[in-house]
Design brief:
Shape: elongated
Number of strands: 9
Structural class: mainly beta
Distance between the termini: 19 Å
Strand content: 35-45%
Number of helices: 3
CATH architecture of the largest domain: Roll
CATH topology of the largest domain: Chitinase A, domain 3
Order of helices and strands: EEHEHEEHEEEE
């Protein structure tokens, strides 16, 4: 039973940068082995509905036509992953905004704001530069995917 747009797919994945470094995986043991384990996270195969934007477009497209038990390695360019970094997502805010919240801004840290998660790029005397781009924006990613199960959609309401 081949995966079609609209189907629900259970799959495992390993995400690598093009230099081979693993940045994410659904496999707990592998995450621990590569020092990327996150305690609060639930590991294991994940379900996604194909073709509706639940996962990045490059993975969505790669799974169409696969069958349960099939493995594939796919290289996903930034345009089919998290996009290219956008200048308009880098902004400056007064350092007082952090001080009001009782925080001391430090370069390299990620902070949760009303607008989402941002990385602190620079801290000057009275200005903090925040980057709201996805941490993987601009990167080519290589995924090893294994389809474990396919559930056909009841209706074909996806085009």
């Amino acid at each position: 039973m081949k995966v079609e747009v609209g189907d629900y797919v259970l799959f495992n994945y390993i995400g690598r940068f093009d230099n081979g470094e693993i940045f994410d995986t659904s496999i707990e043991e592998l995450a621990k082995e590569h020092g990327i384990y996150v305690e609060e996270r639930e590991y294991g195969p994940m379900w996604a509905r194909i073709g509706v934007g639940e996962i990045i477009p490059g993975l969505d497209e790669a799974m169409v036509g696969m069958e349960p038990g099939e493995k594939k390695t796919v290289t996903v360019p930034p345009e089919k992953a998290y996009g290219m970094p956008r200048k308009e997502l880098i902004i400056q805010v007064p350092v007082e905004e952090f001080q009001k919240a009782g925080l001391e801004p430090q370069e390299g840290l990620y902070v949760m704001t009303d607008s989402g998660i941002a990385k602190i790029l620079k801290v000057k005397e009275n200005l903090v530069t925040l980057d709201f781009n996805h941490p993987l924006a601009g990167k080519t990613l290589v995924f090893e995917i294994e389809v474990l199960e396919v559930k056909k959609s009841e209706g074909r309401d996806v085009e």
